[in-house]
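Retro notes (design track)

What went well: tokenization of the new backbones is finally stable.
What didn't: we kept losing track of which sequence belonged to which structure.
Fix going forward: every design gets posted as structure first, then sequence, in one message. First example under the new rule, 286 residues:
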């Protein structure tokens, strides 16, 4: 008669426990894959562990000679940057949705919209200006004189002449161009004109205060030539009498531009209340 404390009897509970542990692990893995909250909580740990594992492995001599290790290192760096940008993108979308909700709650009036035209441009060689562009959109497309042009990076110029199917754009790099600008951080106002070296220069500087180094320069909207808040560039030299500006439009594509109207706010009308108050004042004085 076999004893109850034999070897086979001892291994059966261990096998049963191992089976239950494996089933529980599979269920936990399935729950981790299907639950978004759990996956979001585990994703940073998983990413850090994978990065450590990849960085711990040392490249072999063949990989060093062929340059495969450097390529793998660049790929890992790009993947980490992509993950960081994905987090910033999700944060930006969340903030944009929150901002829309706040604007709806406050009943905030947005900027008045207008019809904009995307046009293809080419450099002009025999025009009246040294720095001008010709766009293949004119009065037929709804473009009017005074429209401002911008590319994917910033302000390009202003429409100074309109034909039926074309328009002339005076670039902000031309010496005859004058753009009222302001510092994004300092809030100081000035006038920018173009130079031959492709940089903007600030004149009519304020008596008090200085522009900050690498500060972004935006249009101030004064004078009604340009709307407020369009990106122009950033300060290159903040010291000295002459402040130069690196123009953002030069970092983008100049093959196509967007021609946009300047939406001016109309002057308020005379209210009937003011007329009644003035009549009552005249009657009391007489």
């Amino acid at each position: 008669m076999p004893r109850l404390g034999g070897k086979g009897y001892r291994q059966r509970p261990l096998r049963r426990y191992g089976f239950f542990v494996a089933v529980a692990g599979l269920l936990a893995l399935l729950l981790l894959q299907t639950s978004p909250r759990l996956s979001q909580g585990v994703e940073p740990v998983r990413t850090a562990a994978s990065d450590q594992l990849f960085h711990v492995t040392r490249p072999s001599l063949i990989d060093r000679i062929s340059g495969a290790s450097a390529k793998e290192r660049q790929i890992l760096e790009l993947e980490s940057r992509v993950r960081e940008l994905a987090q910033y993108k999700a944060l930006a979308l969340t903030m944009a949705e929150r901002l829309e909700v706040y604007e709806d709650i406050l009943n905030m009036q947005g900027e008045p919209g207008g019809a904009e035209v995307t046009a293809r441009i080419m450099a002009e060689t025999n025009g009246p200006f040294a720095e001008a562009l010709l766009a293949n959109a004119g009065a037929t497309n709804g473009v009017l004189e005074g429209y401002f042009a911008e590319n994917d990076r910033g302000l390009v110029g202003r429409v100074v002449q309109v034909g039926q199917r074309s328009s002339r754009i005076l670039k902000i790099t031309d010496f005859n161009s004058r753009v009222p600008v302001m510092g994004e951080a300092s809030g100081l106002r000035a006038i920018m004109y173009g130079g031959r070296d492709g940089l903007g220069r600030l004149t009519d500087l304020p008596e008090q205060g200085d522009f900050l180094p690498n500060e972004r320069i935006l249009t101030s909207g004064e004078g009604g030539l340009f709307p407020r808040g369009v990106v122009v560039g950033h300060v290159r030299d903040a010291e000295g009498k002459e402040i130069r500006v690196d123009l953002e439009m030069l970092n983008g594509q100049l093959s196509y531009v967007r021609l946009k109207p300047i939406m001016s706010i109309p002057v308020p009308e005379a209210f009937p209340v003011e007329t009644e108050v003035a009549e009552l004042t005249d009657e009391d004085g007489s």
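Added context from the reviewer: The chain is about 40% helix and 20% strand.
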